[in-house]
Please model this.
Amino acid sequence: MTANTPNTAQIALLDDRLISQIAAGEVVERPASVLKELLENALDAQAQAIDVRLDGGGIRRIAVIDDGTGIAADELALALTRHATSKIRNLSDLEHVLSMGFRGEALASIASVSSLTLISRTQDAPHAWQIDEHGQLSPASGSTGTCVDVRNLFDEVPARRKFLRTETTELAHCMETLTRIALSHPEVGFRVFHNNRPYKHWKSNSLLGRIQDVLGEDFAKECLSVNTGTPLAQLVGAIAKPASARARADRQYFFVNGRHVRDRTVSHAIRSAYADVLHGDRQPAYVLFLTIEPSLVDVNVHPAKSEVRFRDSGAVHQLIHKALVNTLAQSTASQSHFDKVESAGSGDGDEPQTQQSSSSEVTSHPAHASTQSQTSQTWGRQAGYRPNQSGQQFQPRLALRDEPSWDPSLAQAWKAAHAPLTPESPTSSTTSPTDSATTSSTATIPPARHDTSATAASQSASSAPKEETHWPLGNAIAQLHGIYILSQTQDGLILVDMHAAHERVLYERMKQALTQNTVSRQDLLVPLVIRASEIKVATAQNAQESLLQMGFELAPSGPQSLTLRSVPALLIGGDMESLVHGILEDIQEIGITALLTEQRNELLATMACHGAIRANRTLTLPEMNALLRQMEQTDRADLCNHGRPTWVSWKIADLDRLFLRGQ
Model:
């Protein structure tokens, strides 16, 4: 034993109250933390109606009243004891937990930093019972259910109280917590009062009804439903259309077994699914619910239960990514209708700027300036292709000495997307959207002509088809300023940005053609030695087969080094060291990587942009209709590769209102 000195304190057990206050530091951060714990307890008690009363943003008072099963009188004191819970009994219960709360620390922690009163009544009890902050048990009035009344939060812990914000800020955090709980339990009704005044009232509803009540009618109208899964996991919910993306990530809600969580695997899967349909730094909005076998997810990795750990994160990533990609692909030109006006912006750099105006009656995508990332341009240069001098056609060229060679699979994809065949007339075409994978090349725009005279345009307009054909995007009737296609539909008018639309068509075709080929690899003349941490070396060793399928021959060559001997031919000439590090980090953290696909898609997007028809290119009506038919058969045809809209529409009723017809 070490002699006791003035600088060495004796080991002693901490006081129970101090232990609870330390635990409260993990559980209770602010009033919203208290509200979350109390709401979860109410939901676990099978409550169908919950009242929330807040004073001073929750700083002065938080009361949660539910109509659940209640707590027996002889268990009230135990409910306020640390590590006391009715939700788990052994380790097996913990591994299969489905309740919202289970640690048994919440009430004890909250009581240690506030004045807490607990009133409860079970269904078979003659009356309610109350236990106050001093632990005194006494009879009380009340219906079946529980009321937890928390007052004066952190009054006895001034060091914690000084970190609280203003009443308005704390109220906002409480409402965000309540929003998450309400979205995950639409069958439960919620009433909120602040400073004794009604603040919110959400009645029991369906999921879509609750989403509309909480997030607003605009979100409900602009969302796409998601419903897919496997025997072990089910994903349902709603995601916003790309054109409704927001500048802020304030409408992103993901739930695992009813619990709101933030997870890197999930975020990466959602972000990659939206990768080529969002403009700039816009953020998607979504409300998604993953129901998964409890043994496949660990919810006990964070004191506030805001994080989870999946046993097979790669499988979860694939499920979410595939579900969202398929859902977004449904948002084609034949199915998309937009009811909100967004301000119009500038076009691509290759198109002249035009003045645009809009009316509140106009159906429209948000239009934004399109820019190409420096990364895309870099990969484009490295792949060894250039537009010709006219800029009208885009052809691959043979690589010169000291330049990377042209990848055969990429050349094949390019040819498949640009087969120069004569477009068919819309009245004679019988191609269905399901046949687009095999017949889409029959409507490719032929080589450019340079006749831009008004005479040619007027001749095109005068040769409009006379017979009525109900195509989703209608029949072309004219070309406007060499940039836009005017098309008459059954119920109105559509205006198409021909460059943006053709860009998406080419992009999707090249992706499809390239996906059908195996990844071709190219051996490096001199193997590249990459310095890496021990964990990355171990990751590379365990994932050698997967890396080889992606085109990387990578093997450990030392405790902190890797040797790269072959790379995907598609991306040769790029910064392979950075790409390898990024791929290994993804595999290490989320069990899967999409970096290679993202790099490939950046290259294809640049190719499609250069290869698409340009402004001031005069098209005949058959060519315009060919492009419209291609759009109808192409996934995500309502947005170009940079997230810009490809078309806007006006219904007859919209046009009538513009001219005050019938008023």
In short: The chain has three domains: 16-204, 208-329, 374-383+405-513+615-658. The radius of gyration is 31 Å. The mean pLDDT is 77. The longest strand covers residues 521-531.
